[in-house]
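#struct-help
A.M.: can someone run this one for me? Single chain, 231 residues.
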Amino acid sequence: MARRTRHRHPPDRFVARPRRAVVLIPRALQPQADRVDESVYTFVGACQGERADQGTWERPAGAEKVLLVSLGSAFTKQPGFYRACVEAFGDLPGWHVVLQIGKFVDPAELGALPENVEVRSWVPQLAILRQADAFVTHAGAGGSQEGLATATPWWPCRWPPTSSATRTCSGPGVARHLPLEEVTPERLRESVLALVDDPEVARRAREIQESMAREGGTRHAADLIEAELPG
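D.P.: on it. Structure tokens below:
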């Protein structure tokens, strides 16, 4: 018979009702953030680090705009969607496209590729976003934060409109949503170009980026944790 261990705090109090908590997402991704008790929960924003171990990426000479297409690490077996991206942006003057296709798709499935389309199974995403002008994403937690932290307008193509990432960022105007099943090369190009060309989107993206930076990130999170340690 397993021994019963006495806890200083009951499990429901420890897990669901902490005395103090660090929230590892920015306020911008928290619906109804104004209702959060900040005497208990402190938003620290994106804790990203430099990620030098992931490698670097250089913006090609002559690229006026850079688009990153990445569906994360699991939702990547989408050859039809990647072909739509190639058709939408291949040979588009001034644009360079980085297409991360994951390990489940063979590049040969995409057919002949224009010179401005760079296909990889994996990319150092944050390094590219720091230089990119637009981001097509499945709107996972990591990609959403990275897009906001780098002030990159992003286009979520997976989540339904009721999801927190799409709902929260479409409202403030830094993202436009189009369900994956409704994607066509024409609609994809039209949506992304409209997003990039909208000065209000750029203004709002910078505003959120600055607010996230003020939240403090990793250093602020570490300070809060150390302040709660005994002694």
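A.M.: thanks! The first strand starts at residue 21 and ends at 23.
D.P.: also worth noting: Strands lie at 21-23, 41-43, 65-70, 95-100, 117-120, 134-137, 154-156.
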